[in-house]
Design brief:
The protein has helices spanning 10-17, 47-61, 83-89, and strands spanning 23-28, 31-37, 68-73, 78-81. By secondary structure, the chain is an alpha+beta fold. It has one domain.
Length: 90
């Protein structure tokens, strides 16, 4: 998993992104996106797994869970959700 925080020096960010990863994170539109590549994404439901990632990152970074968005995808499909909604739905 690659985590890039804005306060990291640019060379450290580049070094962490140098290796190919199946899971990564991005900051887009003020939200931290946790992305997970899943072969046959339309056949799996990794919501629980991604919620755990979001909870761990929110706890470690001391950022509110509302600042995170999770997604899984493959070459043809893309699914996303807000982990805060998944936590309150259970």
């Amino acid at each position: 998993m690659v985590i890039v925080l804005p306060e990291m020096p640019i060379d450290q960010r580049m070094a962490r992104n140098a290796r190919p990863q199946k899971r990564c994170g991005q900051v887009r539109n003020g939200l931290i996106h946790i992305l997970d590549y899943k072969p046959d994404a339309h056949k799996v439901n990794p919501v629980s797994q991604l919620v755990i990632y979001a909870l761990a990152l929110a706890s470690r970074s001391r950022l509110p869970l509302r600042d995170f968005k999770c997604a899984w995808f493959d070459e043809r499909t893309y699914f996303e959700f807000f982990p805060l909604h998944a936590v309150f739905a259970k």
